[in-house]
Amino acid sequence: MALAGKRNSSAKLRSAAFRRIRADHLTELAEDYVELIADLIDERGEARGTDIALRLGVANATVVKTLKRLQDAGLVSQEPYRAIFLTGDGWKMAEDGRRKHKIVEGFLLALGVGAETARIDSEGIEHHVSEETLKAMARFLARSG
After folding, report:
1. Are 56 and 63 in contact (CB under 8 A)?
2. Which of 60, 73, 80 is nearest to 31 (CA)?
3. By Cβ atoms counted within 10 A, which residue in 34, 48, 76, 136 is the most buried?
4. How far apart are CA 112 and CA 29, in angstroms?
5. What digits encode the pLDDT tens for the residues 70-112?
6. 92-127 burial, b if ≥16 CB within 10 A, otherwise e?
7. Tens digit of pLDDT for each residue in 11-37?
8. How many CA atoms lie less than 13 Å away from 57 in the CB half-sphere?
């Protein structure tokens, strides 16, 4: 009976992990877009669809479709043929993404991962790392730095 309970517990943990990963994937694209839009606004004073398409290496049509979803979600605002702006919620999401990225990248660098690899890997990890793990990474960085 104990073995069956252990298997059931393990299966529940795996199921919870897969549910979280699926949920993370749903927000990953939105997080990437709002973070890029924030970067463009900080660098150039505005973000345009063509700049987003160029930076992401995707077609303008893909950007238009994604921006429509982001607008429907209340993360961006825009008028046709005008710059794209982040809403309050969009800025919050972008800043949270930047915070996560900085911690994860710093942690990877502290482990000895090369700068380019740390930058690239942190871009993916930031979407899936829990707050508990982020806090542990930040504590590690504070102690080692």
Report:
1. yes
2. 73
3. 34
4. 28
5. 999 999 999 878 899 999 999 999 999 999 999 999 999 999 9
6. ebbeebeebbebbbbbbbeeebeeeebeeebeebbb
7. 666 666 556 565 555 588 899 999 999
8. 0
Note whether 104 and 135 are within 8 A (CB): no
Given a contact cutoff of 8 angstroms between Cβ atoms, the answer to whether 76 and 85 are in contact is: yes
Mean pLDDT of 121-145: 92
Q: Which residues have C-beta within 8 Å of that of residue 113, sequence separation ≥ 6? A: 121
Domain residue limits, the chain? 2-144
Structure tokens at 10: 């393990």
Give the C-alpha separation, 54 to 40, whole Å: 12
Q: Which residues pair with 78 in a beta bridge?
A: 84
Tokens representing residue 42 in the block: 């900080």
| Check whether domain 2-144 has CATH 1.10.10.10, yes or no | yes
Exposure string (b/e) for 24-48, b if CB count within 10 Å is 16 or more?
eeeeeebbbbbbbbbebbeeeeebb
Q: In a 3-state reduction of DSSP, which class is residue 111?
A: coil
- By three-state DSSP, how is residue 39 classified? helix
